[in-house]
Specification:
The protein has 226 residues and is an alpha+beta fold. It is built from six helices and 17 strands. The protein is globular. It binds nickel (II) ion.
Length: 226
Amino acid sequence: MMLRIPALLSPDEVRQCRQALEQASWQDGRATAGPLAAQVKANLQLPLDSQTGQAIGDLILDRLGASALFMSAALPLKVLPPRFNRYEGGGTYGNHIDNAIFTIPGTAIKVRSDISTTVFFSDPEEYEGGELVVEDTFGHQSVKLPAGDAIVYPGTSLHRVNPVTRGTRYASFFWTHSLVASDEKRRILFDLDQQIQQLSVRHPGDPSLSALSGTYHNLLRMWSQA
Ligand code: NI
């Protein structure tokens, strides 16, 4: 499932983050790529111990926790600290699938990359190219969202970032280990949850609400691993 989270960050927050990102010191993105990925990766990244990255990462995690849409879609168990990239001058990241397991830096904690998220820090008109292209069962999805928006997509999908031929594209990306590993099952839980929310607005107090909510939690109990 691909899902857009509109305005995860406010325009003010985006402005402040952008200022900090423009002043940060960037390194070659191949530093964190395996040999296969390094052949198709040409971008810049913030070092994992960058203070700017850590501060903006904390802000992102804060906003994710407050996003009912993200929580419902991702059912997060663990979220890796957000990373940051910068594409310009033809910079690109060709087709690849992300590593399955990451370790949280400075710890022994393993995170399975069930879900990928990208948060945009540049507006679409600021750069040419740079679409995030995700291949899923319905074909290609090409994504280029306003600054402050996020896109959530399955970690299992083949994806790329098209070459940025004008301007600069700043973004954050990170992985979530979900309570529910299967994208298909998460989708069913998400749809059910959304319908329960809508029903509770249209027909507050409807007796079917507690039964449906019970079904949701029973499915979550059956499908989740913690
Ligand atoms: Ni990737």
